[in-house]
Please model this.
Amino acid sequence: MNSMLLRPHPSAGVSGGGGSPGRRRIVCSAVSFGGRGRGRCRRGVAVAAAGAEASWMEEAGVAVLEEGVRRNPAVSDSYRPPGLQRPNATVLEAQARVCTGPEQTRPLGEEQAMRVLDTILRSAMGELKDEPVSSAQLGAFFAGMTIRANSFPEATQWSEGERRAMRLFWPRLVNVLPPEVKFIADPEGTIMANGLTGPRYVGQSTAEMRLVSALREVLAGGHLGYEEVQGVLKDVLPVELVSANSTMVSESLLAAFLIGQRMNRETDRELKGYCLAFDDELGPTPVADVKSLTHYGEPYDGNTRFFRSTLFVAAVRACYGEACLLHGVEWMPPKGGITEGQMLKFMGANTHLSPLQAKTLLEDENAGFAYLSLQEACPPLYSIIGLREHIKKRPPLATSEKVQQFVRARGRESMVAGFYHVGYEDPLLMLMRRRTVHAGLVVKGEEGALSMTTKERSAHASKGLPVNHCSGFRTPNSINFSEDDGISREGFRVIVNAQELGFESTETPRTDRSVLKNLELGLAALSGEKGPAYDRIVLNAAMVDHLLGCTGAEDIKSTLDRAREAIDSGKALSKLMNYIKISHKVS
Model:
């Protein structure tokens, strides 16, 4: 079966900008169609032009911006890396039901179970050439079935329909499935008939042997230690091709491991193993000479519905010395939504910087923020993006990757991360404390991202924590206690009410996967155009400053005014435009 690996691609080149027309027209051609949007962009660019060198276009490679609409996809789905095999839709739909938590799992009915197992059988026999079931899908699906049988509560164990379907198909499947999949489906020989392979299976290499040993515990519903998780990850990642269609480690085993750990609900020790496993992958972490640095941990799979504000918030906060490091990927499953990488690439920025180059941009007063792609910052984790699409549900890495520290600071360090699902607020804060930063903040923003909303909460809002729920820790003004790492902190929990801060309740602008629309909204706001996008950028910049305890942010009203001034003066837009230019010049 074809590999799910994501092949590395070369960094984006820069084309010349000689003979380019004026700056006003260039940016509009990259971010808008039609009269209204073009006018908004022109006002923004006029402000930025006042504070930038006239030659910035040639130096930054304006041809990239000028041809943005023609060369870059305008919809987030289009950024899915070419060459990745698509998962089988029938099995993927079943994975969404059975590869999740003890309470969330929805057992398959008999008809669906029959259809899924028939699809797997025909694929294993080579009959589905156009849409085969991948090795990763087999590993994830059967891991889900095994964990449910071994450790889930009765309500989410196998249904009668699933049992009947398996009794019918397993005698045929056992003759065509590879040994590692038969191991995953019945590791101890207690679930299926003819279960002789599982108890005897040890793997095909040293790395696989360690993975199989850990998997036995995971498939039984158990947990691993910190060192065990780190050891497995370092043994098997990056997943490397040994031929066109095979890898050093079975993708079935790796997929089973990743989804199995998430189904069992990772312990703090396991999450720390994922979070810290590759800290030293590229050598010593660069240290930026800045007074304050905030690490932004947006969900890597992006936004599919609402305006994503963090890129523009970073430009605002950079205006008053709050350096910001963004990190992520251009495209990530399962949502495959709008990301900072897509927006920066669309505008012509270099999105393939090394951590050392990011350090330089953080220190540059003309920029003051930076974006790092996982491809450069942590190649082992980048190597399994394709595999993650085929396991369907988010693995533990979806949590731990938001708490990375690819660059350190000589001054104060803070972390911000978005979350949605109940149960991940405290683990994220735990990981931040493990990073020994001075302040940490988790936000339940819209779509589980970082963007807080100005929309008033409905009386019929869904149960659970509301949007704009924030919790975290920060270094207190008066030190009365200390922690093991030597940094004293105080905790807080708050629900941000935008109306109490003077904001009008407005609907969040919808972007519906349109990178173009998200950029149009953000650039119009940075040009000073008032409205929902402007308000959200101001709210998110100021609240992060205030809640993290940043310098000059004790009073929330003056902090909001500071964010507005950064926009209305044109400084924030200039920072963003400067970043596009400077990102191509750092060495």
About this structure: The longest helix spans residues 135-151. The radius of gyration is 25 Å. The chain has two domains: 89-265, 287-586. Residues 89-265 form one domain.
